Amino acid sequence: MNRSITAPAPALSKAGRKGKLSYKTLRKLVPYLYVTPATLLLVLLMLFPMAMVLRYSLMDGAIMKRDAAFVGLQNYITIFQNPVFWQSLYQTLYFTVMSVVFHFVLGLAFAMLLNTNRVDPTIRSILRVLFILPWLFTAVIIAIIWRLLLDPNGVVNSVLMALHIIDFKVEWFSSTKTAIHALTFANIWAGYPLFMVSLLAGLQGISKELYEAAGIDGANEFQKFWHITIPQLMPIIISIALLDFIWTMQVFPLVWMTTGGGPIYATEMLSTFTYKLAFAQYEFSLASASAIVILLISMSVTYFYIKHQQRR
Amino acid sequence: MAKRSLKNSVLPTVLTYLGLAIGLVFAAFPIVWMFFSSLKSNTEIFALPPKLLPDDFTISAYLTIFNDPTKVRFFINSYFVAGVVTALTLFIAILTAYAFSRYSFRFKNTLNIFIISTQTVPPITLLIPYFGMVVAFRIFDTYLALILTYLVFTLPYAVLLMTGYLNTLPKELDEAVLVDGGSSWTALWRVIVPVSIPGIVATAVYTFLLAWNEFLFALTLTKSMDLRTVPIGIQLLMGQHAFEWNEMMAMSVLGSLPLLVLYLVAQRYFLAGMTAGSVKS
């Protein structure tokens, strides 16, 4: 298809002015042809569904009723009057902010440890691979691993009891007090490598001369870290933190497979709250309203992300 | 003086190794525990005091899985869906990335922003209309439903990663083909694609990972056991026999294996590609 459009130029040189003109016009179409499949797919399966979910959210009994009527913002009002929604929102924010902060702290610590030349290069490259491993695991598998480790009779309780840190078997995932923390911890374990990999690349890109110049000026290690390392890494930190925030906020399988949002609503997240509305209670309209709220939060963070990317 | 310099060089090195050792335990212990648990008998899993290595190594959990056609089917499904999604994603992404990297055209910036923002659309938001659409088009509980919906979230990453990679290639490469009278199509497939193998491998591995790990759509858009993928299979296993821990661990090991192998094989490409995409996209 493209072959005929971008026909070899020599063949056209004899074709005269008119032919040349249409050849030029056709040539301009080439990039559009290349982007057509992706654009078509994303419009049909991204823009169109988003319009649909918006429409559902304004109707009463979407999907379930044939003659679903428009009810304006009624579904949003119902959602906002539901205390579980607010609890889910608060818990999602807690889970997300804690995750992103610790992903950053651990990611930076590991990246800096791996970046020093104090460690043998072979050990360094082996450790780099090993430190990335948690990131390669499916959320479902991460959930199962942590359910095993944090089982009341599991190894974590045994170790903590042996060290006299706790004196009874804690039911990490089934107690309302600990469930959200256990879940956040599992997610911190699973997610720090993205920060680590990106910051490691960033660290390797910082010019050694900056540190040497600071050394000559008598800066100590902490001053170098605070005045060179952190500012130099800032663009990466901001990008990854925003992306991580957006993705962590959408958490579903990890919660679904560990606590299912329980006990009671102690670990209910916006995603599980919405999923249950749709596929346990078949309240697709209410679920759509809730899904739109999640989309709006995501989109507002995305806005900052894109602004930040374009400024760089 | 001598003491001071010794302290200055040895202490930081010791602390660095100590930090790395703690990090290694944190990162790897859960994975090692999973692996050895899959080789324990079910009664030994919660032995007191806990032991990392089983007293009797047994592969019975693995044999149970291999002898159960339903469970083998989970793996076949995952490989098939992730494979098809990876191939389609790569093809479409290469075309799109080529246009982004080599042409300037109207709407290019708009399209680019659109693709970046689709990365961040919550799957749960799309799930509800997808459910409606999949039922309406009568493709509920089919491979097609999974493949189409997976493409939507694999494609944006693939386009960004590939565009980042193609941007690093000199324009003279394809211009040489165009000057010789070849079409841009020829330039793309004969010249650009062969030299882009590292970028393509990185993109393929990441796409496969995304598709292999997908949970929400597979959970909701399929129903029959014949179409369930590995993550859903593990979830079902958990519901059915809540206490067959060794079998669930074996399933998890097998479910992580393709990603570990792909990652180790393509490690160098993968890291370079990932950082190019995530840091500079």
TrEMBL record, chain B:
Residues 75-266 form the ABC transmembrane type-1 domain. It is found in: Cell membrane. The keyword ATP-binding does not apply. Keywords: Cell membrane, Membrane, Plasmid, Transmembrane, Transmembrane helix, Transport. The keyword Cell membrane applies. It holds the Pfam family BPD_transp_1. The chain crosses the membrane at residues 12-36, 79-101, 113-137, 143-166, 187-212, 248-266. CDD domains: TM_PBP2 (cd06261). It is a multi-pass membrane protein. Gene3D superfamilies: MetI-like (1.10.3720.10). Belongs to the binding-protein-dependent transport system permease family. This is Carbohydrate ABC transporter permease.
